[in-house]
Recover the amino acids of this structure.
């Protein structure tokens, strides 16, 4: 391989690595819900609107639908609580049943005109509080999006929380991280809706799902390359042109 090919390959490889590194370093929390007092977003990117959380009919506020107690923010504990209507005492957890029952909370993320959203992950604290004995039981939270029509066989991922401690205290397991690095969650414009669906196998009404610090992570960037990007591309093309002319000479 001659020196021109080596230099040309090196220039473009270095530029590509630099751009990828810059993108990964710029990933941040672009929308977050901490439930200090309500269901509104606590943090949102300047070019993104994160709507107030909506609650599905299966876990409606006030308990008029589903199990008593409903759902909502716990201002004292600074968390979100809910009781799902889909519960089984036979160690069965069914996303299809949760979808049919509308046991979910939803998030609408709307990107400002001229910008696009590249997601990397969705993170949250998943726990419980309860009265009674539910040893060996578990709850599950599934993440779905309107990109796949909220189809039960197209969920993005799920997270399990296993029950251990009795009593009314709030108990959190390990923080949950769901990857959103797939191609369908890159370059998003307009509004995208995500839903967390819930189910458990307690078979009772004394189990309360608990969530906190729900965060969407990624970047919101201009859909039109910035002048600096054009300058970099122009410089690379000019350098390549010089190398090719020298090679021909």
């Amino acid at each position: 391989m001659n020196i021109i090919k080596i230099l040309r390959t090196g220039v473009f490889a270095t530029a590509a690595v630099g751009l990828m590194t810059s993108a990964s370093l710029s990933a941040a929390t672009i929308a977050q819900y901490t439930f200090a007092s309500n269901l509104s977003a606590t943090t949102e990117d300047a070019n993104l609107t994160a709507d107030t959380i909506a609650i599905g009919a299966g876990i409606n506020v006030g308990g008029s639908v589903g199990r008593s107690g409903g759902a909502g923010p716990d201002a004292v504990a600074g968390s979100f609580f809910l009781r799902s209507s889909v519960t089984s005492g036979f160690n069965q957890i069914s996303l299809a049943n949760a979808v049919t029952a509308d046991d979910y909370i939803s998030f609408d993320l709307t990107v400002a005109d001229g910008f696009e959203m590249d997601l990397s992950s969705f993170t949250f604290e998943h726990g419980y509080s309860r009265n009674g004995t539910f040893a060996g039981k578990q709850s599950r939270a599934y993440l779905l999006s309107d990109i796949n029509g909220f189809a039960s066989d197209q969920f993005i991922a799920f997270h399990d929380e296993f029950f251990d401690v009795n009593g009314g205290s709030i108990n959190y397991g390990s923080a949950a991280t769901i990857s959103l690095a797939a191609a369908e969650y890159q370059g998003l414009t307009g509004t995208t809706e995500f839903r967390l669906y819930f189910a458990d196998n307690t078979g009772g009404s004394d189990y309360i799902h608990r969530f906190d610090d729900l965060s969407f992570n990624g970047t919101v960037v201009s859909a039109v390359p910035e002048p600096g990007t054009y300058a970099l591309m122009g410089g690379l093309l000019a350098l390549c042109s010089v190398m090719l002319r020298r090679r021909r000479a």
Q: What stands out?
A: The domain at 26-223 is CATH 2.60.120 (Jelly Rolls).
